[in-house]
Write the structure tokens for this entry.
Amino acid sequence: MDILISEELRAPAIERLAKTYQVVAEPKLWQQPDKLRALIAEARVLMVRNQTQVTAELLHGAPKLLGIGRVGVGLDNIDLGRASSLGIVVAAPLNANATSVAELALGFMLALARKIPEADRSTKAGNWDRKGCTGIELAGKTLAVCGLGRIGGTVARLGRAFGMRVVAFDPFVKADSAVVRESGVLLCGRIEEALAMADFVSVHLPSTPETRRLFGASTFSATKPGAYFINTSRGAVVDEAALLDALQSGRLAGAALDVREFEPPAARGALESLSNVVLTPHIAAFTVEAQERTFEAVAADVERLLSGQPVLNFVNFDRPKR
């Protein structure tokens, strides 16, 4: 087997791979751990999105595996350290969906500021409540960007284009870095400092032990009263119970979540019942353009890997070391 696909991955780029290489594609394989372990033992390349948990145990049972193609940017479902120690290339086109995710974050800001979901529901119900749908402008407001990587930097630039003042928190970014200069943000040394100024908070952080539930009761208590909270990164960075408390108490004016701690949620909860909360099913990267860029980039790197060429969108190293 050349390529094992363990999730729902369909695109012209995948079809082209199947014309040249032996591809085994099973969309539900990520839900069948025993079968996954059996099949990966024969695979040279594994292609995943974010549902397959590529653990150290799974990797140790894949002696022929040369590389992992991640269709997307998050790497929290892949044990990158173990893959690297085993000499397995991890490839992910980290720039492919930055524009799409950033545009969704701005869309959330507009939806919350102008009460677009509420106005839509009210009007479709036969009302014409212009006064009740009075919103606010983004211009002149302060946007706090938490995480100033590729996506966060793009959000910062878009925010400034709307006339917003942009502050940012990222412990790995220096004040004299290119992203700070290009985005024109005020870089804060502490997250509480950024949140205290924010009318809108947009989160763009990876899921790590350090960021898990970073946004909890103490963080929300440090946020400017009446702010709007937006998360298009990873659900694990938010304590949803604390978020719910902040919304119900009025500490936060509203929230928009594209990601949840458990996806999909096991049941409909209190967040789903709040009129000032916008929820979407992890669609930030799901635009025609981003999906095409992502699939094309991953498929091209898989071809390079299997033909002995260096990978372009590598996360650890460009050639297998096994």
In short: The mean pLDDT is 95.
